[in-house]
Write a structure and sequence with these properties.
The chain contains 23 helices and 21 strands. With about 600 residues, the chain is an alpha/beta fold. It is elongated. The model has no long low-confidence stretch (mean pLDDT about 90).
Length: about 600
C-alpha cells in the first residue's frame, strides 16, 4: 500500500503517503489504481506536497480495457497501488500493436520501455495540430511522425497522399530517400527556387483557377472588386481562342464605353479627351482613332470627327454615335472558363484591360481606381519572376494535373509531395497554399465517393496561412475553415504545425480532434490553448512549460488520456538546425600562423 485516502474533492483524490514510499519511489506523473471490491479507478499523480499525493481521476480499468472518465469515485477504504508495468499500455500505450492500423509515435519518458502511439485513423482521418516554440523540436517531431508512417516491415501505405507546404525548405532532406528504405514509397518535390535542381518548379495551370483564386492572387480588398475579375475571366474565354470573335467582343466593348462617354453630358473637350484616351489604350484593327467613317461622297477618320468647332461642340457627335452603334452585338454571350482550354497571364491581362471599360468603370473615378489597382497588380505579377509559377507549358485538365502532382520522377505514385515555398514573399506563399488546398478540396469533392483517395495537407508555420483574415467577408468562406468543417467527408484532412497558435483561425483550430503540443512559453499562446483547445486541463498547461525538446503532451480523440511522448530523432533529420555561431564566429590565430 502506498498510503491511505484522506480526501476526495471533485476530481482530485488526496493520498497520505507512507514515509518509506517518499524515500524510495518517484510518483510524479505516474498512474495509481484505487482498488475497491467492485471497481478499479485510475488516477494520475499531478502533485506531491507535504507528504500527500494529489491524484487526478482519469478513468477505470474494466477487465483488460481502460475506460476514460470517472462516474464512480473510490471509497476512502480503497487500497492504493502503482499501476503495474503490464497494465500501463492499457492506459497510455499500444496494448497490441497492429502495423496496418497503429502508428508508433515515441517512448514514454515517465515509464521506461513503454512505447506510445495512436490509431492511424484517429490521427490522420481527422484534423490535427502540432504546436511548439522555436527550438522545441517541432520540425524533428513532425519528420519522425511521417517517417514512422512509411517505415514498416510488412504493410506499405502505397495509397497515402501527403501534401506538405514547407515554409523553410526543411523537410526535403528528411523524406527524399524514404524509397531506399521502403521500396514502393516515393517522394516528389516542388520548389519556388528556380535554381534548385533537385526539385521541379511550382507551376499552376492558370486555366484551372476560379474567380476566387484570382481574387486571392491579386489581393482583392472588397467584394465590389470581384465583378471585374469575373468579367475578365469571361472575356478570356474569347480572347484566348477564336480571333474573329475576339475582335467582335473588343469592338462591342469599346463601342459601348464610347457611347457612355458620348451620352455623359460632359463638356466637348472632356468627351473628346476621354474618347482619345480609351482608343489610345483599347483598340482593334477595325476600331481605332484612324478608322475611316464613310459618308456619301467623302470619308474622314474617327479622330477628325471628334474635332471641336468654333461654338465649342463636337459637330459630328451624331455621326460618331451612329458609327459606334454599328459595332454593338447583343448576340455575343460570355461564360466563365470551364478548364477545357489553356490561357496565359498575357491573355488574362488583355481581358482585364477590356473588362475595366466593359464594367463601366470609366463612369466613376472611385470604381475605376478600385478596379484598376487589380489590373496594376496583375501587370506587376506578369513582369515579375513570380510569373513563372503560372507559366504552364501545355494544356492539362484538373484531373491530369492532380495525378501529375502525385507522380514521382520514376513514373510511380508519390506518397509525399513537398512544396518548398521558402523563396516567395509571405503574401504569395499564403495564396499558393490556399490555391493548392482549394484545388485538392474541390477535386475530391467533385469526384465519386468510391474513387476518392484521402489527401492529408500538412501546413508548416500554419499561422502564416490559416488566419482570421478577410476571406469570409470577400469570398464568403475561408478555404482552410471550409476544409476543417467539411473536409472529413470528402477525405481532405488538415494538419497544422505552428509556433504561434494564437494567430490561427479560431474556427479551423476548433475543428481539430488531436493535439500534440511541445514546449510552449509565450503567455498569449498558452492562454489561447487553454481557451480554444478542448479538454485542456491546468495540469496539461503546467506541463507545457517544462517539456524537454522533442517531448510533447498529446491529447484528443486519439488518446485515452493526455500523455507525454518523447519522440525519437528522425533519420535523416530535417534541415532545421540553428546557425552554429561558435563555429562561424571564431578564427584560430594559431592555425593562421
Amino acid at each position: 500500500m502506498l498510503g491511505r485516502i484522506t480526501g476526495i474533492e471533485e476530481n482530485v483524490v488526496v493520498v497520505e503517503l507512507n514515509p518509506e514510499v517518499l524515500k524510495t519511489q518517484t510518483l510524479a506523473n505516474r498512474h495509481l489504481i484505487f482498488e475497491d471490491p467492485d471497481k478499479l479507478v485510475v488516477g494520475e499523480v499531478v502533485n506531491i506536497k507535504g507528504g500527500n499525493a494529489y491524484v487526478n481521476l482519469i478513468g477505470e480499468l474494466v477487465g483488460d480495457r481502460f475506460v476514460g472518465g470517472v462516474i464512480r469515485k473510490p471509497s476512502f477504504g480503497a487500497s492504493v497501488k502503482v499501476v503495474s508495468q503490464e497494465k500501463v499500455p492499457l492506459i497510455i500505450g499500444i496494448p497490441e500493436f497492429q502495423e496496418n492500423r497503429d502508428l508508433y509515435l515515441g517512448m514514454s519518458p515517465v515509464y521506461p520501455g513503454i512505447k506510445l502511439g495512436v490509431k492511424l485513423n484517429d490521427l490522420f482521418a481527422n484534423h490535427f495540430a502540432i504546436f511548439g516554440n522555436t527550438g522545441s523540436g517541432k520540425s524533428c517531431s513532425v519528420a519522425r511522425i511521417i517517417q514512422n508512417v512509411f517505415t514498416r516491415q510488412r504493410y506499405i501505405p502505397y495509397r497515402a497522399s501527403f501534401f506538405i507546404f514547407d515554409a523553410y525548405g526543411e523537410y526535403h532532406n528528411a523524406f527524399k530517400d524514404l524509397g531506399k528504405t521502403t521500396p514502393g514509397i516515393n517522394f516528389k518535390a516542388y520548389t519556388t527556387n528556380t535554381n534548385f535542381s533537385d526539385s521541379e518548379i511550382i507551376r499552376i495551370p492558370l486555366w484551372l483557377l476560379t474567380v476566387d483564386d484570382i481574387a486571392l492572387l491579386l489581393g482583392v480588398e472588397n467584394a465590389g472588386q470581384l465583378p471585374i475579375i469575373e468579367k475578365a475571366l469571361k472575356l478570356v474565354t474569347i480572347f484566348a481562342r477564336d480571333e474573329s470573335l475576339v475582335i467582335k467582343h473588343k469592338n462591342d466593348i469599346i463601342a459601348r464605353a464610347i457611347l457612355d462617354i458620348l451620352s455623359s453630358g460632359r463638356g466637348a473637350a472632356q468627351i473628346r479627351d476621354q474618347i482619345f484616351s480609351v482608343l489610345s489604350h483599347y483598340n482593334t484593327s477595325e476600331l481605332n482613332l484612324e478608322t475611316e467613317i464613310y459618308q456619301p461622297g467623302y470619308s474622314r477618320s474617327l479622330k477628325q470627327c471628334l474635332l471641336i468647332d468654333q461654338s465649342g461642340k463636337i459637330r459630328e457627335m451624331e455621326l460618331v454615335t451612329t458609327f459606334m452603334e454599328s459595332f454593338l452585338n447583343d448576340e455575343l454571350e460570355l461564360s466563365l472558363p470551364d478548364g477545357t482550354f489553356m490561357y496565359s497571364l498575357n491573355d488574362l491581362k488583355d481581358a482585364f484591360d477590356f473588362a475595366l471599360i466593359s464594367e463601366g468603370s470609366l463612369k466613376s473615378e472611385k470604381i475605376f481606381d478600385s478596379s484598376n489597382v487589380l489590373r496594376v497588380r496583375l501587370q506587376s505579377l506578369l513582369n515579375s519572376n513570380y510569373a513563372a509559377y503560372f507559366d504552364y507549358p501545355e494544356y492539362i485538365t484538373k484531373e491530369q494535373y492532380i495525378k501529375k502532382l502525385m507522380t514521382a520522377d520514376n513514373g510511380k505514385k508519390a506518397q509525399i509531395v513537398n512544396f518548398n515555398i521558402n523563396y516567395v514573399d509571405d503574401r504569395l506563399a499564403k495564396n499558393l497554399t490556399k490555391i493548392y488546398s482549394k484545388l485538392l478540396f474541390d477535386y475530391n469533392k467533385d469526384i465519386a465517393k468510391g474513387t476518392r483517395m484521402p489527401f492529408n495537407i500538412i501546413l508548416e508555420e500554419a499561422h502564416r496561412y490559416v488566419q482570421n483574415d478577410s476571406d469570409i467577408e470577400i469570398l464568403g468562406y475561408n478555404i482552410f475553415e471550409r476544409i476543417t468543417k467539411e473536409g472529413r467527408k470528402y477525405g481532405v484532412l488538415l494538419g497544422m504545425i505552428s509556433q504561434r497558435p494564437s494567430e490561427l483561425s479560431e474556427t479551423a483550430l476548433s475543428q481539430c480532434n488531436n493535439f500534440l503540443i511541445l514546449k510552449m512559453m509565450h503567455p498569449k499562446d498558452v492562454a489561447y490553448i487553454r481557451e480554444m483547445v478542448p479538454n485542456v486541463t491546468e495540469e496539461i498547461i503546467k506541463k507545457l512549460r517544462i517539456l524537454q525538446p522533442g517531448c510533447c503532451v498529446a491529447f484528443g480523440n486519439g488518446f485515452k488520456v493526455p500523455v507525454i511522448i518523447q519522440f525519437d530523432m528522425p533519420n535523416p533529420e530535417p534541415s532545421s538546425n540553428s546557425v552554429d555561431i561558435s563555429r562561424i564566429w571564431f578564427i584560430d590565430r594559431q592555425a593562421q600562423q
